[in-house]
Amino acid sequence: HAAKYDMTQEQLEEQRLRMSTMSPLSEALQSCMHQLTLMGQSVINPIPVGDDPTSSSSASSGAATLTSGGADTGTGKPLLEDVMDTLTTLIRNGLGLPTLNGAARCVVLLASNSKIGALMKNFASPLIRALQNGLLDQSPSVRKAYSAALGHLCRVAKRKRAAKVLKSIAELYEKAEDKERSVSAMTALAIARKAQDVVQRYAVDIVPLMFVGMHDPDEQVRANWVDAWEESTPSTQGGVRQFMKELVALTRRLFESSSWLLKKVAIAALAQVVKLSGSNGRYFEPHLADTLTLLTKSLPGRLWSGKEVLLDTLADIVHECRSLMTPEQGRQAMQAMLTECKRRKKVYKRQAIQCLGRLADDLFSNDNKEEFATDVLTPLIQDVILAPESGIKIVCGDDGGDDDEAKTTTSSSSSSSTTPPTTGSTNP
Fold first, then answer.
1. Could you tell me which of 12, 28, 183 has the C-alpha nearest to residue 102?
2. What's the mean pLDDT in 86-108?
3. Which of 30, 68, 236, 363 is a plausible cystine mate for 330, CB 3.0–4.6 Å?
């Protein structure tokens, strides 16, 4: 019905939830939560004995009510455990938007109360599992509510249980589907805001993913990862330097995945890692050789949408780390880029030529730059701007579209040397 009212599904659900909070049932729920909160306060902070001669018995009664079997709940369980079991059942098997959101809201209220939250540690694991299983619900509002509830629960749960949640967030994102990436980002942000001690303790499992997620193509997903990163690191450059090893390993793993989207995200993140490493790439030096090999070996093969980012990243790495590169590494980068300049797809070829010029500017001595431009770059540029048909036809701007392919020119100018001049060795 969302389209009927000219609104999104999430907006329609928010209206439904807003109306449900005005019902008598919602008021009764709030009253029950208030009573449970008062019981929790009597457990942690009993009234001083000197002020009330019955205070000791009141505190003892509160403790028995919440954490022992002294309360008559009809199940023989402590009241708090019975409440947690009921919430778990509702989250796992409940039907209807108000029911699911209401159950998640109760979890948030309980966990955010410092008195009751301290008592929830032993009962939190089943509830966390139920929330995780419902994270991919069809309803955007339910997904958001469950993410928020998980953030609060991780603050009071056992550390090992919270660590498993962080790992599951990474696994969700690496599935590369829209819903999974969105839920992963929302849950990570909720944990970063409500359970920062958990994030800091298991930072290597989640903080590098936050940085990579900051390069996601989806605007909302990207914004959530940016907020999570800012909550978890003192500064962007400081965070990159602190987690350099983990960032490089993560981007490499994502780049080698079968998802083209993850490939683009990973390579864009890697480019930023290099730029933010500072000190002329010295922080990145331990990873330089492996990264250059990965990029140069990845350039050949089929073209996929967004592969131009590979060209830019290789040029960025050479620019930042040129003082650390060996002549052989410089030749390896030049030859790989030169090969890409022979591609037939115009848009990709233009980008490759531009990046080739950047490599030449960084690697060649001043005496050899002019010779390289004349013998190599000029024929390549002519091959792009001159159409392959007989006669000369200038292609203006992006005429011809991204899918047009230019055949290799057979003129004498384009058949000149296609390798860097032998007199111009790389000069890192």
1. 28
2. 89
3. 363
Q: Given a cut of 50, is residue 71 above it in pLDDT?
A: no
What was the pLDDT predicted at 362?
86
pTM (2 decimals)?
A: 0.76
Mean pLDDT of the chain: 78
C-alpha span between 27 and 400 (Å, rounded)? 65
Name residue 345's beta-bridge partners. 405
Neighbours of 372 (CB within 10 A): 23
Question: Is residue 387 scored above 50 in pLDDT?
Answer: no
For the chain, the C-alpha Rg in angstroms (whole number) is 30
Q: By percentage, how much of the chain surpasses pLDDT 90?
A: 42
For residues 161-173, give the mean pLDDT.
94
308 CB-near residues (< 8 Å, 6+ apart): 347, 348, 351
Tens digit of pLDDT for each residue in 194-223? Answer: 999 999 999 999 999 999 999 999 999 999
